């Protein structure tokens, strides 16, 4: 459990550094801050994804836990879309930002320590990571890129050719074919990947300058809805799917715990890159990161 606390400590500390640097004017606002997100979107995060997936065991990708989590993800996104259509009446990009915030979980810097020290097995996380990057991310990015006169085809192409998606697919191919990437090539990729999380978290912290979480306005209810869906509804949906599929013991526990992970910083990075739904994504990431540990403690006590 100490390593889980360490994971939370890393997140909050780096966010705090970004906030302090923004307060002191070291990180500027607007375009200056968004450079962090663009570097992460186009270079460092794809490097992290590739290096993680390329060295993983593909035999775990067909785990029933992965299918349960994927089903819970899609169901939770659908629930948000239904609520949004009935209550918020937002455009497609903004709705997609909220739907992703309600279901796209942190499988890297929170998922790995939690899988190791709460579930007891890290093999559940990488398949979920590949599922999110290679299957879910194209839809999310296509939705965020929709509107503004863009052709539907252009949005789909943008989703399928996003750097993280291509990196996940390339990493999977390398892993599945047992290719060995020479160290002079892999080492720089790993170094770049190591910068991904700090860049995203510092930009996240800098975005908090001069603003408050859950301010009154059109984004407040979508944020609260996405937060509730992420921390409460998605784990319940995962439990229902897993139970219906006959999962028991550690498989059931792993599926529900993964579903309760906080919203991924990548969701904020996507919205910042496309300049849509940033507040909903930022506030949902913030709230779910704080509240996910109590939620997981409840799950651990019940299961």
TrEMBL record:
Q: Name one Pfam family in it.
A: Mem_trans
**Mind telling me which InterPro entries this protein's record contains?**
Mem_transp_PIN-like, Na+/solute_symporter_sf
Similarity comment: family membership: Belongs to the auxin efflux carrier (TC 2.A.69) family.
What are the protein's UniProt keywords? Cell membrane, Membrane, Transmembrane, Transmembrane helix, Transport
- Lineage, top-rank taxon, reads Bacteria
Q: Where in the cell is it found?
A: Cell membrane
- Report membrane topology: Multi-pass membrane protein
Q: Provide a GO biological process annotation.
A: transmembrane transport
Name the GO cellular-component terms.
Answer: plasma membrane
* Coiled-coil segments on the chain, per record: none
Q: What is this protein called?
A: AEC family transporter
Transmembrane regions listed in the UniProt entry: 6-27, 39-55, 67-88, 100-119, 125-144, 156-177, 189-208, 228-247, 253-272, 284-302
């Amino acid at each position: 459990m100490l390593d889980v606390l360490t994971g939370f400590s890393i997140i909050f500390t780096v966010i705090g550094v970004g906030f302090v640097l923004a307060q002191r004017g070291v990180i500027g606002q607007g375009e200056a801050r968004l450079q962090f997100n663009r570097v992460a979107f186009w270079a460092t995060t794809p490097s992290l994804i590739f290096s993680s997936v390329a060295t993983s065991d593909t035999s775990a990708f067909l785990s029933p836990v992965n299918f349960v989590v994927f089903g819970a993800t899609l169901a939770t996104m659908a629930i948000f879309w239904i609520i949004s259509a009935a209550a918020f009446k937002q455009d497609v990009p903004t709705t997609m930002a909220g739907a992703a915030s309600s279901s796209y979980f942190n499988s890297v810097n929170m998922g790995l320590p939690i899988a190791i020290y709460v579930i007891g097995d890290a093999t559940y996380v990488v398949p979920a990571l590949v599922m999110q990057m290679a299957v879910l991310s194209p839809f999310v990015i296509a939705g965020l890129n929709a509107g503004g006169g863009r052709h539907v085809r252009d949005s789909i192409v943008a989703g399928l050719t996003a750097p993280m998606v291509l990196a996940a697919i390339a990493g999977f191919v390398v892993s599945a074919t047992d290719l060995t990437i020479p160290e002079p090539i892999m080492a720089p990729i790993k170094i770049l990947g190591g910068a991904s999380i700090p860049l995203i978290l510092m930009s996240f912290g800098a975005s908090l300058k001069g603003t408050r979480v859950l301010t009154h306005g059109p984004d407040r209810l979508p944020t609260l809805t996405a937060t509730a869906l992420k921390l409460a509804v998605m784990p319940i949906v995962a439990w229902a799917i897993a139970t219906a599929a006959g999962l028991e013991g550690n498989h059931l526990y792993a599926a529900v715990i993964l579903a309760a992970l906080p919203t991924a910083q990548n969701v904020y990075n996507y919205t910042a890159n496309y300049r849509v739904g940033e507040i909903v994504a930022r506030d949902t990431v913030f709230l779910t990161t704080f509240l996910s540990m109590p939620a997981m403690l409840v799950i651990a006590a019940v299961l």
